[in-house]
Amino acid sequence: MSRDEVVPLKDTSNARFALFVLFAINLLNFYDRQILAAVTEPIRREWSLSDSAVGWLGTAFTLFYAAVGLPLGRWADLGSRSKILSVGVAVWSVFTAASGLAWNYASLFLARMGVGLGEASCSPAANSLIGDLFPSTRRARAISVFMLGLPLGIFFSNLLSGLIARSYGWRAAFFVATVPGLLLALLALRIVEPSRDTLGKGDATREHKNASAAFHRASFMQPYLELWKIPTLRWIVLSGALANFNAYAVNAFMPAYLMRYHKLTLSEASVAAAFTIGAVGVVSLILGGIVADWTRTKRPDGRLLLGSLALMLSTPCVFFALTQPSGAVSSFVILLGLGWMLFYIYYVTVYPAVHDIVPPRLRGTAMALYFFWMYVLGGAFGSSMLGMLSDRFAKRAMHIANETTISEATRAIGLHDAFFVVPLLSLLLSLVLFAASRTVAVDMRRAELRG
After folding, report:
1. Is 399 helix (H, G, I), strand (E, B) or coil?
2. Can you say whether the dihedral through the CA atoms of 377, 382, 387, 392 is positive or negative?
3. Taking the model in full, what pTM does it have?
4. What is the pLDDT of residue 114?
């Protein structure tokens, strides 16, 4: 057992306050990110956009997010994480408001890039803070609280954005998120930075201090090359690509899917999506964090095995949800909601595993590396690939129906057929997590020795 596992929280009150603020920031992060998906249909119809065009908004956002995330992750290991978070939240909040001022596709595109710039500061800095504030035996539970912002952000964004758009137009949905963001930017400055040179209560060894000093003098690429030598991290990066492809594809098009295929109104689709891909995550993240920490005390590969099992069980739930006929909303919501509840367990098993296999001095950099590749290889193309598949299958449906133009009916068929890529990748994700569980014990021992 490492020293990191047995130490108490260094400052309980600061740790709790920091975790509350980080949770709120993460909630707003996903709230702002999901607004576009919640109001996709009115935007698409107003500007006569294809699903491919809608999907490429998400792809460009994610690629830019990943690119700027690398230097921001390194900055999180060298600078003040609370200041990084404060500036980031303020920037993305302003650009979220700018999204509501967009007058065409190009202006909305640029505004979403600004949102991506600010949001890229969140995960590396926040995860680095959690890694320093909480010992590994309580880290999954702390991360589960932080990650509650994901399903709750998606839940409230789908729920409120749809209702706001119905009453005041889709532009107003972007405006309402600005003030909470600026308030959270101020609260972030009140987080007291924990020392990076300690693993507990100031008992850092001379070797650890020397390693930290060497890190600060290292070239930009050296930390990334050091991290890439860790086998488990490479498996985790691949898992992130698969998980994020599915997450971004489903989040981007679920409201549209419910409106087209199941014939729901904008407000009905927003409520259904809010519960199906949002609220269900609250249960799995809370209980999953507790179970993940328990499995970590029983065996070093416990967390990753739990994640693999959860995704294995999620796959048939999602598949059978998609086989439900048009109009069978209740059975679709129950099956997909159960599948997505199991999907959320991924976060509380993989994120703490990253902290277990890298030394504390590289936590922010490791999370930035993980996020970069999982977005570039997966998340960036989840929405665009699903959008292109939807357009392709819609054209196929058009030809089968002997029509000359793509109608709303054939668009519904196209999007429905495209969604079957999700359970396929979910099954592959389960196998990748199982492979990661085979190497994690050795990499955890190596991380402890490196300090």
Report:
1. helix
2. positive
3. 0.74
4. 86
Report the distance separating Cα 3 and Cα 281, nearest Å. Answer: 32
Q: How far is residue 249's CA from residue 415's CA, in Å, rounded to a whole number?
A: 11
DSSP 377: I
Which amino acid is residue 88, in one-letter code? G
d(C-alpha 93, C-alpha 119), whole Å: 9
Within 10 Å of residue 209's Cβ, how many Cβ atoms? 13
CA 398, 400, 405: angle at the middle one, nearest 5? Answer: 20
| Segment 375-393, tens digit of pLDDT | 888 877 888 889 899 999 9
Q: Return the closest-CA partner of residue 395 out of 416, 411, 383.
A: 411
Count the neighbouring beta carbons within 10 Å of the beta carbon of residue 48.
8
Instruction: Note whether 237 and 369 are within 8 A (CB).
Output: yes
Q: What residues contact 168, with CB distance under 8 A and at least 6 apart? A: none
* C-beta of residue 135 within 8 angstroms of C-beta of residue 3: no
At residue 271's C-alpha, the angle toward residues 167 and 177, to 5°, is 60
- CA gap 63, 356 in Å, rounded: 27
Q: 120, 68 in Cβ contact below 8 A?
A: yes
Residue 255 to residues 40, 251, 273, 277, 416, Cα–Cα distance (Å): 8, 8, 6, 10, 12
Distance of alpha carbon 169 from alpha carbon 177, whole angstroms: 15
Amino acid making up residue 330: S
Architecture of domain 3-193+211-450: Up-down Bundle (1.20)
pLDDT in tens, 358-367: 887 777 778 7
Tens digit of pLDDT for each residue in 113-161? 888 888 877 777 887 788 778 776 677 778 778 888 888 998 999 889 8
Specify the length of the chain in residues: 451
Candidates 60, 68, 65; CA nearest to 110 is 60
The residue among 418, 390, 422 whose CA lies nearest residue 316 is: 422
Q: What is the DSSP letter of 360?
A: G
For residue 205, name the pLDDT band (cuts at 50, 70, 90).
Answer: very low
Cβ(29)–Cβ(153) below 8 Å: yes
